[in-house]
Amino acid sequence: MMKLEMICTGEEVLSGQIVDTNAAWFASTMMEHGIEIQRRVTVGDRLEDLIAVFQERSLHADVILVNGGLGPTSDDMSAEAMAKAKGESLVENREWRQHLEDWFTRNNREMPVSNLKQAMLPESAVMVDNPVGTACGFRVKLNRAWLFFTPGVPFELKHMVKEQFIPFIREEFDLDAKVALKKLLTIGHGESSLADKIEPLELPEGITIGYRSSMPHIEIKIFARGEKAIALLPRVTGHIKMVLGTAVVAEDKATLAEEIHTKLLNSGLTLSVAESCTGGMITSQLVDFPGSSSYLQHGLVTYSNESKVRVLGVNPATLDDHGAVSIPTVEEMAKGARAILDSDFALATSGIAGPDGGTEEKPVGTVAIALATRSGVYSQMIKLPRRSRDLVRSLSAAVAYDMLRRELLTEAVIVDYQSIGRFSK
Amino acid sequence: MMKLEMICTGEEVLSGQIVDTNAAWFASTMMEHGIEIQRRVTVGDRLEDLIAVFQERSLHADVILVNGGLGPTSDDMSAEAMAKAKGESLVENREWRQHLEDWFTRNNREMPVSNLKQAMLPESAVMVDNPVGTACGFRVKLNRAWLFFTPGVPFELKHMVKEQFIPFIREEFDLDAKVALKKLLTIGHGESSLADKIEPLELPEGITIGYRSSMPHIEIKIFARGEKAIALLPRVTGHIKMVLGTAVVAEDKATLAEEIHTKLLNSGLTLSVAESCTGGMITSQLVDFPGSSSYLQHGLVTYSNESKVRVLGVNPATLDDHGAVSIPTVEEMAKGARAILDSDFALATSGIAGPDGGTEEKPVGTVAIALATRSGVYSQMIKLPRRSRDLVRSLSAAVAYDMLRRELLTEAVIVDYQSIGRFSK
């Protein structure tokens, strides 16, 4: 099997001044082609570090994608380091020098002398074209590995990987790309509790399971490698969904908001939202998607009691008798938000996100949630003790979305989730 | 000099399914303490890869922070790999087993058997406490290096680095901690335009400048190393602020929302928000902070025209004559939101976030913003062409916050930002 590694260069990546999105993009693009990266090394702009890492990793990998350090400034030294690592000199690549001169002429600019450096490649390098920038790519064979040098500018990297790198490794290593992936989105279960349920299953050969925590969700990834495993993927997925029950809330979606958005978009159905403790989170996550205006009518973040009365028409006596965090209040909030524009659905939340504001009867993490429809209202009051303010809010939003999702599927709206408690009515 | 490296583990980080924000956070936190990372290696969940990287890097570094792989599932194998790398066995740490049992008892849950694994540490390991999770940290000496193992959950990592790791390296390597840092938050300028203004300044010895892009903000970090430089830091900061003018919107705050929250908290002043294109972002960013209920009365995300009329009292004729994205509409939205609860201030936004919905007259990126006060209303219509939907929304929220910030300082509410255009009224 071909061993692929990545070397990321640049002080700003190593020092955390920028998050390395190139690395994540490259790895997930390779995954989609069925190729796993074995290791990624990130180094700064020090010549001796670069030489050392090229020499060292070229003993272990078959292909190494090197990203960054091809620019015109003094801290761009990938080509020089590669030449030194191989013990050869830098020579001017005529073709690229011509390309640079043409590029600057086309852009009506004079070429700074510093850009000439970008045409200097290690003697044994094979040039790799970059039609979208001034940094020339190249590849060099050292020890076991092909080192493939790419620019740090994201769209130049992407272009070069798609147009040059992938065809190159396909050809060079005769790759078989048969891989499939299914993602299940879950809420209300810890990673270990999900694993305890899944790990006893006997999975067919070629099928592996991964977990990714992205609170309030945990995503389960089912990888299938090879045609036989891919054919079995739907059956395995069905089995896992059965075992996990209400924990699974979406397939191949990143969040419940995306699932709701997809279901409501162009459905002709409309939604209103009244939020207290979730503070705009439910609304905001939907507005993130273009086209949400087709179904989302308004989201009313009625943080104060006065606003619940004035904007949503909650009865002041309800607030007095039951408090803002109560089933009667949140039901009136949902009904009020729905009635203003006669929406098909309205979601409402009211709770104590913390860290302060809890009482013995209603501690921090108590959240009332309601869904109003044209025919009635569903509500529950959940318990999320010992969660951070942010997690109380994001879990509450997830439960609210799930109530609506289940209503849209005409399933029971209120269900138990393993790690989420509930007050009896 | 102490050589610090980082090893990130986890298939989901290596494969790019998640961007490695832990790595960026750790590196920039170390930078703030005056310590540079030399190299970062990212490996997946394969035992032999982990063993190889521990053995190899322990020959080169003095301290290696290892992140991830301490969970209860079968793909968490950092402790096992470390034990194998050192040729010793895993033994149960009684103290941590007790901690786990107490943790689950306190949370009224039965401990899954899989969690027992989290108490198994390499024989020579020194346990490192994790008061905020079930993953036990530890450190092991191998060859030249101390390998320091930390959980992958971001807030557990952060807690352990601050409370345990930094004191440990301080003590072990006798580090000189004389470093100070000032952060300036900016909006409306590109990084190169900020650098063009700052780089001509002659900075005293020991003072260096860093930039961090966290859209819609760019943060400028002014590091001072040594007592002399620290003493000069206020003067240098003042000079840079003068040179940058309206670009600087806060000091030592991560976002403008945090600056507004700090100013309004317990001020006795109240705020209402009416959002259209920003879709709850302004409200939601404030609700993120505990205590925001002391000033935030409500945030009305009036996405549809009907909602602007019914909830905010916008005149239908205004919408007909000028459209939803217009100065008159956004002014009525702000005045309406303020009037409902007689708030001191109200912010309103209405714009075209894209990718669709633009016209020749009002292209994607056109956003009207208003601030209503007890004495009047300020408004402007800005142009944000060629920005993503998300950036149009976050820049609009930032400009709205800045209008309120400037009003609270009794400065001119509407000012020019270099990279943000504006329609003339």
Give structural attributes.
homodimer, 425 residues, alpha/beta, Molybdenum Cofactor Biosythetic Enzyme, Chain A, Alpha-Beta Plaits, Maf protein, 3 domains, six-stranded mixed β-sheet, 18 strands, 24% strand
Verbal overview:
Two copies of one chain form a homodimer. Chain A contains 14 helices and 18 strands. The first copy, chain A, has 425 residues and is α/β, with parallel strands linked by helices. Chain A folds into three domains: 4-173, MoaB/Mog-like domain (Molybdenum Cofactor Biosythetic Enzyme, Chain A, 3-Layer(aba) Sandwich), CATH 3.40.980.10; 179-251, 2-Layer Sandwich (Alpha-Beta Plaits); 256-422, CinA-like (Maf protein). A six-stranded mixed sheet of chain A has the order 2-1-3-8-7-6, sandwiched between helices. In chain A, helix 2 (21-32) runs parallel beside helix 6, helix 3 packs across helix 4 (78-86) and helix 9 packs parallel to helix 14 (389-408). Chain A is elongated. Chains A and B meet through helix 2, strand 2, helix 7, strand 10 and helix 10 of A and helix 1, helix 2, strand 2, strand 10 and helix 10 of B. Chains A, B: Pfam families: CinA, MoCF_biosynth.
For the record, give the distance between the C-alpha atoms at the N and C termini of chain A, rounded to a whole number.
Answer: 59 Å
| Helix segment tally of chain A | 14
- Overall radius of gyration of chain A: 28 Å
Oligomer: homodimer
Beta content of chain A:
15-25%
